[in-house]
């Protein structure tokens, strides 16, 4: 179907646009009272994500309410470990928790590369319903975690400041680590391809824990697998967002991806120089800027837009929205990007 608003895809292809497209990481979620109402109608996050009609509804909410130029499917990166045989729970106010983790060869024997259409049919169904509901208004973004970030949760068993168990495995048993990373990579490629077949117009790979590895380990245990994914996905554009991987920006420029996401610690001019203009850029306002006054939000937004001008740019935050950000301020950010033009 022909998209009515294809600004995001045009920027990625390097075509002329009248203004910069904008969407926000974690736009489908807790900042909206409309989201919380749907969320409260079920037992929790996981049930919501597994109910395709409701997942589609909250995916479309930010398009209707905030006026963003893309939707991102409501799900989580942790559906992959679950499909591989490692279920997770979402503990209120604390985040994800895995009753079983991977620490040995025998743990790996208990997991498998999943049949995506069997284990993750609920995500594929949600994508199909979302596409119908969007009716071509904006593109739909599919996503997955980068193998390293998924590995970090599967080994650590929960979020962590240091992910020291996950990082320890890279020194103690690198062979085991690579075995697990390979399984995750194969599963992720299959999963992204299934999302594309169901209707995703762009896919994003989130390497949320890129920034905790030293550069040599980042290359060996993360970038290598991201590169495999980029090479395998040829059907739609791929965005790589590696939070904290400032030390790997030059290598990002050499990846077979179309868009590089920048976090808010990455200086824009320096990033453009290191990554090069073959890529489109996505980002990178500090999410905390949206706690500011209207005037300070305007200044920060225009400062970011000025710094990206002359590049192919998709406006976004440098990481996901925080749950207590005022939706009015989020709307203001979106309006300011739209006013700015290109
Ligand atoms: O961006 C979107 O709006 C689409 C939906 C989306 C969610 N998670 C929904 C969600 C996306 C793209 C994700 C990705 C995700 N999940 C990442 C990568 C991006 C990032 O933030 O770095 C990571 C690391 C996770 C793992 C995860 N899921 C954590 C650590 C948590 C708990 C902390 C938190 O942010 O709430 C989640 C839960 C989660 N995923 C919620 C939502 C809306 C909150 C659940 C709820 O209470 O409703």
Short key terms for the protein model shown above:
TIM Barrel, binds coproporphyrinogen III, 342 residues, alpha/beta, two-stranded antiparallel sheet
State the order of secondary-structure elements, H for helix, E for strand: HHHHEHEEHHHEHHHEHEHEHEHEH
Q: What's the assembly state of these chains?
A: single chain
User: Strand sequence of the main sheet, in spatial order?
Assistant: 1-4-5-6-7-8-9
CATH architecture descriptor text: Alpha-Beta Barrel
Q: What percent strand?
A: 5-15%
Helix percentage range: 40-55%
Provide a descriptive summary of the structure in words:
The structure is a single chain. The chain is of the alpha/beta class and 342 residues long. It has one domain: TIM Barrel, CATH 3.20.20. The chain is 49% helix and 11% strand. The protein is built from 16 helices and 9 strands. The protein has helices at residues 7-13, 33-39, 45-49, 52-65, 79-84, 105-109, 116-119, 121-134, 147-156, 164-172, 174-198, 215-232, 249-254, 268-275, 294-308, 327-340, and strands at residues 71-72, 89-91, 95-97, 140-145, 202-207, 238-242, 259-261, 280-285, 313-317. The strands form 2 sheets. Strands 1-4-5-6-7-8-9 form a 7-stranded parallel sheet, sandwiched between helices. A two-stranded antiparallel sheet has the order 2-3. Strand 6 (238-242), helix 13 and strand 7 (259-261) form a beta-alpha-beta unit. The longest helix is centred in the middle third of the chain and has 25 residues, at 174-198. It is globular and about 55 Å long. The two termini are 26 Å apart. The model has no long low-confidence stretch (mean pLDDT 97).
């Amino acid at each position: 179907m022909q998209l009515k608003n294809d600004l995001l895809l045009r920027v990625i292809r390097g075509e002329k646009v009248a203004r910069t497209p904008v969407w926000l990481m974690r736009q489908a979620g807790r900042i909206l009272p409309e989201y919380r109402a749907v969320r409260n109608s079920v037992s929790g996050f996981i049930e919501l994500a597994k109910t395709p009609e409701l997942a589609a509804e909250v995916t479309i909410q930010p398009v209707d309410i905030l006026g963003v130029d893309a939707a991102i499917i409501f799900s989580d990166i942790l559906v992959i470990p679950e499909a591989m045989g490692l279920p997770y729970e979402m503990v209120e106010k604390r985040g994800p928790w895995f009753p079983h983790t991977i620490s040995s060869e025998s743990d790996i024997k208990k997991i498998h590369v999943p049949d995506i259409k069997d284990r993750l049919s609920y995500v594929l169904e949600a994508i199909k319903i979302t596409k119908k509901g969007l009716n071509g208004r904006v593109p739909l973004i599919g996503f997955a975690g980068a193998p390293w970030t998924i590995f970090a949760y599967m080994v650590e068993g929960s979020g962590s400041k240091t992910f020291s168990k996950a990082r320890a495995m890279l020194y103690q048993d690198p062979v085991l680590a690579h075995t697990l990373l390979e399984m995750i990579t194969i599963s992720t490629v299959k999963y992204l391809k299934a999302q594309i077949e169901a209707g995703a117009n762009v896919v994003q790979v989130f390497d949320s824990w890129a920034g905790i590895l030293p550069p040599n380990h980042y290359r060996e245990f993360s970038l290598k697998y991201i590169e495999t994914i980029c090479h395998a996905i040829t059907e739609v554009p791929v965005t790589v967002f590696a939070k904290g991987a400032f030390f790997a920006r030059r290598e990002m420029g050499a990846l077979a991806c179309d868009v590089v996401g920048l976090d808010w610690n990455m200086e824009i001019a320096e990033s453009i120089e290191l990554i090069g203009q073959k890529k489109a850029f996505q980002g990178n306002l500090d999410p905390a800027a949206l706690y500011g006054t209207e005037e300070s939000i305007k200044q920060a937004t225009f400062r970011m837009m000025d710094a990206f001008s002359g590049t192919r740019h998709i406006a976004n935050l440098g990481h996901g929205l925080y749950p207590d950000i005022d939706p009015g301020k989020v709307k203001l950010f979106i309006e300011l990007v739209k006013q700015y033009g290109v």
